Amino acid sequence: MTITSLSVRIPAELRAKLKAQAEHNKHSMNAEIIKRLEESFTSQTETAPSVSKKKSAGSVELPASDVNRIRKVLKKAVKELKKKAD
Q1: How far apart are alpha carbons 14 and 83 in whole angstroms?
Q2: Domain count of the fold of the chain
Q3: The Arc-like DNA binding domain covers which part of the protein (predicted)?
Q4: Residue 73 is part of which domain span?
């Protein structure tokens, strides 16, 4: 594998998030960025559901579009339950 360098400009807030996540995962920002880029290409070619990986027992990471869809369904269910309770 050939290694090359890449210079990119990103918002300071995104850099801070990457740095914090890299520290949390106990590796460098470079390793965090490579891991995330590789995962983005892997997830595009998978035919499995949108769950990308298990983080800890009972928790999963979902794409934002799935999270928003679930939120809408839950909000609707809560409204219906409140109507029935009244």
Answers
A1: 41
A2: 2
A3: 7-42
A4: 50-86
Question: Is the residue at 7 inside a domain?
Answer: no
- pLDDT per residue as tens, the chain (86 positions): 798 998 999 999 999 999 999 999 999 999 999 999 998 888 665 544 444 454 566 677 777 887 888 888 888 888 888 888 87
Residues 41 and 61 in one domain: no
The number of angstroms, rounded, from the C-alpha of 59 to the middle of its chain's C-alpha atoms is 12
Q: What is the largest CA-CA distance in the chain?
A: 66
For 14, 30, 81, the CA distances from 11, given in Å and listed in that order, are 5, 16, 42
Same domain, 40 and 56: no
